[in-house]
Amino acid sequence: MEELLRTTDITVIPLARTLLADEGIECFELDVNMSVLEGSIGILPRRLMVRRDDLPAARRVLWENGVRIDG
């Protein structure tokens, strides 16, 4: 798995997951429990992971839909 994006914006991960699912790209969210433990104040980022082979297509899907990916 490769990191597609990392964010503290709670709206970005669900949007990205939906866009990727519509394209048949599987993804996995990391650090969900850590952000819950810190009290959901948005300090700790969550990460969205995809398969290495899907990374270019996943980046394209997010870019085409206006989802900013840093890095």
TrEMBL record:
This is DUF2007 domain-containing protein. InterPro entries: DUF2007, N-reg_PII-like_a/b. SUPFAM superfamilies: GlnB-like. Residues 1-64 form the DUF2007 domain.
